[in-house]
Amino acid sequence: METDTITAISTPIGEGAIAIVRLSGPKAISITMNLFSGKNLNEADSHTIHYGKIIDPGTKEVAEEVMVSVMRAPKTFTREDVVEINCHGGMVAVNRVLEIILNSGARLAEPGEFTKRAFLHGRIDLSQAEAVMDLIRAKTDKAMSVALKQMDGRLSGLIRRLRQDLLETVAHVEVNIDYPEYDDVEEMSHEMMQKKTKEVLMEIESLLEVAKQGKILREGLATAIIGRPNVGKSSLMNTLVQENKAIVTEVPGTTRDIIEEYVNVRGVPLRLVDTAGIRETEDIVEKIGVERSRQVLKESDLILFVLNYNDELTDEDVKLFEAIHGLEYIVIINKTDLEQKLDLNRVNEMAEGNPIVTTSLIEEEGVDELEAAIAKTFFAGEIDSGDLTYVSNVRHIQLLKQSKNALEEAMEGIELGMPMDIVQIDVTRTWEFLGEIIGDTASDGLIDQLFSQFCLGK
Amino acid sequence: MTYNAGHYDVIVIGAGHAGVEAGVAAAKMGAKTLMLTLNLDMIAFMPCNPSLGGPAKGIVVREVDALGGVMAKVIDKTHIQMRMLNTGKGPAVQALRAQADKPLYIKEMKSIIENQENLTLRQGMVDQLIVEDGVCKGVITESKAAYSAETVIITTGTFMRGKILMGDLEYESGPNNQRVSVKLSEHLEELGFELTRFKTGTPPRVNSHTIDYSKTEIQPGDEKPQSFSYETTEFITDQIPCWLTYTNEFTHQVINENLKLSAMYSGMKRGTGPRYCPSIEDKIVRFNDKPRHQIFLEPEGRDTEEVYVQGLSTSLPESVQHEMVRSVKGLENAEIMRAGYAIEYDAVVPTQLWPTLETKNIPGLFTAGQINGTSGYEEAAAQGIMSGINAAAKVLGKESVILDRSQAYIGVLIDDLVTKGTNEPYRLLTSRAEYRLLLRHDNADLRLTEIGHDIGLITEERYEKFAAKKNLVEAEKKRLSKITIKPNEEVNKVMTEAGATPLKEAIKAYDLLKRPELSYDLVDQMIETNPEISTEVKEQVGIQIKYEGYIKKANEQVARMLKMEDKKIPDDIDYDDISGIATEAKQRLKKVRPLSVGQASRISGVNPADVSILLIYIEQGNIARIAN
């Protein structure tokens, strides 16, 4: 009956070690298959579970190692094809998996929609119908209040402004169409339309960009600690963890050798990513090569590069400097309790203006300065958590992306020289998507705009 | 004491633009039909502007024609000029507009009505309906004639408790000083109908001899012969132009100084007027920074000197109207023949109607046209034909016809009215249609001829012609998809001349036609010409291919919409029994009584969660029914 495929995180948020992303609908299996590296799920038997990886098709990166359950219609909860993706990487990973699925053709389920489908397909007993309706009501109300709470006043203000801009543009096109002889307004040209759509597109893109920053605030700044063996990387990690209450403790390293610790440093959430290479106090560059290590480092939002005060700058140190060239990093010169052998001038030169902090982790010296440097790095740039219009709601981000796509299609139409009333179809869609974000979908707005903006007679 | 005046299948009260379509459609379908009107000389009279069509409205005229209506044929025979509007824009918004010869239009329409088989035309004022056991069974006139009937359609326009306003002058009247219908309005209230009060207005008419046209700009019709009806074969070639002039600061000064004398600005509480057709007073007040407003001078016919002053709709006193008119360039010596006025009237709140236009209160009773809160001749004709079809269908035991929002502007109009209602006189605008690209001027026949034929309003001869055209369009599309165009000097010469980038690789003619800058005729120069096809077929093929991507997108949206339209709501549904639906939504649902979940979702105040719950409740009922 339903033709689209829906998805949602089906486990309570922020609880439990395993989170499940569920898909239901005719494309549940094919969508998953496109993202999954592992067994061919199209051939998998119903009610079987498979190990593999979820790959982000955009970046080709591994997003998460997962166990995927495939359940084929009709013997499923919804009586549609159902896929459940078990993630164990905490909220960050599960959100990322959800986002990838949403970008691959599934739609975010409405509150209670799995249950609704189960009911509509006769899966749930008649007597339970009442309960289903209550559930939808309750979940919708809750989702509404949560979404509203999540939505910053600035965000809704901005969306309203963008919508008004689009509405005026659309009304302009409409007045050209419905009142072709009206002489008070010039004919909307492709150039004017292009300028307008570009403006709005840029605003939406920057919203999505900031949405990423919001994600950082929510999920933590991916932080890598690097350095030669025995410079004090483990001590640094332990210090940060001890000084600051860990939010989430380690993920068992059974399926992969990455340890993550969440710490809150002066309001900056850090997700300390410690690759096995570092943990085992081996040289990451030696182990996986400069190119590869640079790739790993690139994925970090911040790098803490530890040097030994008590040792001369080695070739390995230089290689590491080269590896992090152009990235966001802080140089930590550790072991100041020992004799200075390091050429500080040279370090200064190599650091290219990135902050340098001296510490003695054993003596617990310099930790304050380090934390200050981390906070400064985060807040000094574009990102200012106190003055940030950020989008955190997955649904909002999806709608913004749909708006962006619709605007891009409008731009494409403009470039092809499509007539304005055709281009306008995509502009109107954008207006509608943005309206869904703030819960305003009344279509009469355009008619009202038309008559308040123009003096129309004929 | 009444006398028995006979029995009819369908009685149409009123012979305006809604009434004539209703009567002709019902009669053509085989229903014995009576049409009662206050004045036989005023059939299909145009009390306001002398024009038909324009954006959205022009497409409606084509739709009415594709269903077998009469408006298009009559205007094709009686116009003084025609223009295709929006030719520089996309195919979806192009629309034809005609300036009508008003007296000739009446004459031609009267002749059609008089000669229509199964249709009886009679002069008479209906005072009340005969209602038995809550069902409409006929009408009684002021002259005590009692007509019994299976169905009755009220198309009384602005006549119900009409009141003309001009300065402090006010009197009960229909438009243009015709008799007013008072008792019927009171009777409808007694029957439990909710009425609302709307107003509209009309500008003065001036004598053509007193206009100095040299001070105005000419607005000629198109030279190319065009028609609204798909059946028209003869075209009027000698056209009469309209003229354009402007108001100025003196005009605005006159209006501002006398504003309090305007009936609509005198502080009295009045009916709601339409925003899209404001009086000149409204324009000056609301947009006081505009230095001038357009005035179109439109002849009312070939054999009359009356000229309609489009843009000066007003309820100012007659004395001020003289001053105002004479302040306009070209009208310095103009003689007003009829003064402008505002008119207030009763309208039926249209959410009291089913989408068939039958009233929910009283089975057998239909209302159509301006009485339902619309404005415009075309909107009236659209409702007229649909009410006629559905009244006759009811009598003849046929299935009713409801057009959806993707099929026709008529569908958009009626769905808006019965689902959302309206708080001002409703006018169709292209922006009211979600699927504008599908509801084009050029494809009204493709959308609706089949339906018109099924219900018996389209002749076999016309249908065969239509079917042949449809086949030719499909065949030509197929042919183009098989022809490969290779880049060579000749081809690229055509491309370059058209301002297109020359071809580098071979391409199918079909795909080449998708380029916006290449018309069918240009592509035709690169391939072997198909001698069989007409201009209309070429146009159709060109549009369908060029906008294929957008049309496909629209069709996908339509498919989603129709899925919800297919989920019918049982008539016996008890909204109070559904606990999950919000109170406000319940109230709205109880009032509108939507036929489908799709319709329910368009009611303002019914949110998506309510729709979900409604859906589940209905499914639950269906399952229960099957189980029993």
UniProtKB/TrEMBL annotation, chain A:
Binding locations of (6S)-5-formyl-5,6,7,8-tetrahydrofolate: R22, E84, R123, K458
Cofactor stoichiometry and binding remark: Binds 1 potassium ion per subunit.
Biological source species: Virgibacillus profundi
UniProt: Mg(2+) binding residues: S234, T255
Record note on quaternary structure: Homodimer. Heterotetramer of two MnmE and two MnmG subunits.
NCBIfam families reported for this sequence: mnmE_trmE_thdF, PRK05291.1-3, small_GTP
The protein, known as: tRNA modification GTPase MnmE
This protein's encoding gene: mnmE
PANTHER family per the UniProt record, alphabetical: TRNA MODIFICATION GTPASE GTPBP3, TRNA MODIFICATION GTPASE GTPBP3, MITOCHONDRIAL
TrmE-type G domain location: 220-379
GO cellular component: cytosol
Localization annotation: Cytoplasm
GO terms of molecular function: GTP binding; GTPase activity; identical protein binding; metal ion binding
Function: Exhibits a very high intrinsic GTPase hydrolysis rate. Involved in the addition of a carboxymethylaminomethyl (cmnm) group at the wobble position (U34) of certain tRNAs, forming tRNA-cmnm(5)s(2)U34.
Positions annotated to bind GTP: 230-235, 249-255, 274-277
Record keywords, A-Z: Cytoplasm, GTP-binding, Hydrolase, Magnesium, Metal-binding, Nucleotide-binding, Potassium, tRNA processing
Cofactor: K(+)
InterPro entries in the cross-refs: G_TrmE, GTP-bd, GTP-bd_TrmE_N, GTPase_MnmE, MnmE_dom2, MnmE_helical, P-loop_NTPase, Small_GTP-bd
Record: residues binding K(+): N230, T249, V251, T254
Record Pfam families: MMR_HSR1, MnmE_helical, TrmE_N
GO BP terms in the entry: tRNA methylation; tRNA wobble uridine modification
Entry's family note: Belongs to the TRAFAC class TrmE-Era-EngA-EngB-Septin-like GTPase superfamily. TrmE GTPase family.
Automatic annotation (TrEMBL), chain B:
The UniProt record lists the keyword Flavoprotein: yes
Annotated Gene Ontology cellular component terms: cytosol
Chain segments annotated as transmembrane: none
GO aspect biological process, one term: tRNA wobble uridine modification
A molecular-function term among this protein's GO annotations: flavin adenine dinucleotide binding
Protein location: Cytoplasm
Keywords, sorted A to Z: Cytoplasm, FAD, Flavoprotein, NAD, tRNA processing
Broad class of where this protein is predominantly found: cytoplasm
SUPFAM superfamilies found in the cross-reference section: FAD/NAD(P)-binding domain
tRNA uridine 5-carboxymethylaminomethyl modification enzyme C-terminal subdomain domain boundaries: 545-616
Keyword Methyltransferase appears in the UniProt entry: no
PROSITE patterns: GIDA_1 (PS01280), GIDA_2 (PS01281)
Binding positions for NAD(+) per the UniProt entry: 273-287
Binding residues for FAD: G14, A15, G16, H17, A18, G19, V126, S181, Q370
Cofactor dependence: FAD
Family: Belongs to the MnmG family.
Function: NAD-binding protein involved in the addition of a carboxymethylaminomethyl (cmnm) group at the wobble position (U34) of certain tRNAs, forming tRNA-cmnm(5)s(2)U34.
Subunit structure: Homodimer. Heterotetramer of two MnmE and two MnmG subunits.
Protein name: tRNA uridine 5-carboxymethylaminomethyl modification enzyme MnmG
Species of origin: Virgibacillus profundi
Lineage, opening ranks: Bacteria, Bacillati, Bacillota, Bacilli, Bacillales
